[in-house]
């Protein structure tokens, strides 16, 4: 059961291991890699979405950039993405408000890079 697993409730797309329904929204597990030259989704790593973060892990800068990047990439308001676990760790849990599990699964799948490399999100 790599990235798939049992189907999401309601017959939607197969759930991703990095997502689960939680109190107050969908929970997204992230393996953050701070200090990158640009923020980008790198793919799946175990049960987490691997994200390069274009900010150093100093004074909360990487956390702020991670939340900004994820919100923008998923089309959410910045305030709809909350860090609930892992403030000082690379492995983090984010709460996504405004998406159900099926919508979050589809949105995260759209961010996954092709086999060739990373994919940035929301850049204009």
Can you tell me the number of structural domains? 1
Q: How big is the Rg? A: 13 Å
- Counting helices, strands and paired strands, the structural category is alpha+beta
Q: Please report the first level of CATH classification, the CATH class.
A: Alpha Beta
By CATH's scheme, which homologous superfamily applies? YggU-like
How far apart, in Å, are the first and last alpha carbons? 35 Å
CATH architecture: 2-Layer Sandwich
The DSSP helix count reads: 2
* Morphology: globular
Low-confidence sequence ranges: 1-12
Mean pLDDT: 86
Query: Mind describing the biggest β-sheet?
Result: 6 strands, mixed
Q: What string, H for helix and E for strand, traces the elements in order?
A: EEEEHEEH
Quaternary state of this entry equals single chain
CATH topology: Conserved Hypothetical Protein Mth637, Chain: A
Percent helix, as a range, is 10-25%
What does this structure look like?
- The chain has one domain (9-111): 2-Layer Sandwich (Conserved Hypothetical Protein Mth637, Chain: A), CATH 3.30.1200.10.
- It has helices spanning 61-74, 101-111; strands spanning 19-22, 25-34, 40-45, 48-53, 81-85, 91-96.
- Strands 1, 2, 3, 4, 5 and 6 form a six-stranded mixed beta sheet that branches.
- The termini are far apart.
- With 124 residues, it is of the alpha+beta class.
- The longest helix has 14 residues, at 61-74.
- The model is unreliable at 1-12 (pLDDT under 50).
